Amino acid sequence: MEEFLTLRDLFNEELSISEIARQTGHSRVTVRKYLNSQVPPLPQKRSKKPSKLDGHREYIIDRLKEFPLSASRIYREIQDRGFTGKYTIVKDFVREVRPEIGVPAIYRYETKPGVQAQVDWAECGYIDIDGEKRRLYCFTMVLGYSRMRYAEFTLRIDVYTLIQCHINAFGYFGGYPQELLYDNITQIVKKRAPKSSDSTWNSHFQDFFEHYGFIPRLCRPYRPQTKGKIERTVGFVKKDFFMGGRFTSFTDLNSQLQKWLSRVNSIPNGTTHEIPIERFKQEGLQKIGNAPSYHNRRDESRKISRDSFVSYLGNLYSVPYRYAGMTARLQISDLTFKIIVGSDEICTHEIQPGHGKVMRIKEHFKGLLSEILKQNCTLRDNNPSILKFVDTDVEHRPLSVYDRLGGGDSR
């Protein structure tokens, strides 16, 4: 109506149709149509084009009310009914008419103080260590009641690293809960049973949890909400700390993470709305000092080279020279390893990063040169180098033999 009146006002001001068209942006045909009409022209409805989906719409709606079928399933079904159109038409229509399904409600599982913690690993891309590209992982543990968090970055996810991370977390909390909840990973369980306690555990991890006496629990497959607390913690570490951070080394990465943990454990939790470190006072964990220290180590066998070195992770480490050529056992912990021959612990080395390094301890070779010289002297004494001539044997014959040879008469 406003457009209609504007056009007529301009015409009454004796403007030409061309001028009105320029000022209003309408075509001259439209201007002329509005001026010749006594009332505003009603918009003409376009006739609806027939669709190949006609005749199948009610069927699709009824099927979706009955079952939450996929668009591809609906497409196959109406093809059997004679539909000749394309899949995109079906997909768009299914999206338009599919009944909305509300998010299924879940029960928030809250634990009592000191009862449970949840544990998880997370992959965090790659890191450069001494020019080598290494996978980076993050271990996380959260206490169920207080929401106190612990985390650390690692370069391995084997069972020994897992155990060491537990020991570090227990030390951070000053204790451990009655049970810990895990995913079904091989570092924890070899074969899962319907009842967690009947599962076949990783023997190394079983030795660890039996040492401290906590109970390992396995979450049900495909039920991520069972471990909701730790899942949120993993995402929080990645988004609030790791992404976009600046770190000078692997050590600096974990050092900054510890400072971050101090901060987030001192601010209100989004679920409990309480400060974890204050709520932690009610946890009543089992004190880690109540159990003897757990020696987390893995054993590997090595042949000591003739020049008195063993190889570990691409680096060489010296041993006392008198053990050259023998077979040694390496007891490996998180940062060091011991070298044992028979029942004797012969030396300890710190594990060095990188490859191609030679860790030589002078004391391991003390006395070797003098012993080599002594052996050389002994060899010389036992094997003199003076050449001696051997006398030839001369045959002694009677004089009569020579007389006959000379033609003489023995008479």
Low-confidence stretches: none
Mean pLDDT rating? 83
Order of helices and strands: HHHHHHEEEHEEEEHEHHHEEEEEEEEHH
List how many beta strands DSSP finds. 16
CATH top level of the largest domain? Alpha Beta
* Strand order in space, largest sheet: 3-2-1-5-8
Helix content: 25-40%
Largest sheet: 5 strands, mixed
CATH topology of the largest domain: Nucleotidyltransferase, domain 5
* End-to-end Cα distance: 178 Å
What is the annotated CATH architecture of the largest domain? 2-Layer Sandwich
Bulk shape: elongated
SS field, number of helical segments: 13
Total domains, how many? Answer: 4
Kindly provide the radius of gyration, computed on alpha-carbon positions and rounded to a whole number of angstroms.
Answer: 44 Å
**Portion in strands:** 15-25%
Coarse structural class = alpha+beta
**Name of the CATH superfamily of the largest domain:** Ribonuclease H-like superfamily/Ribonuclease H
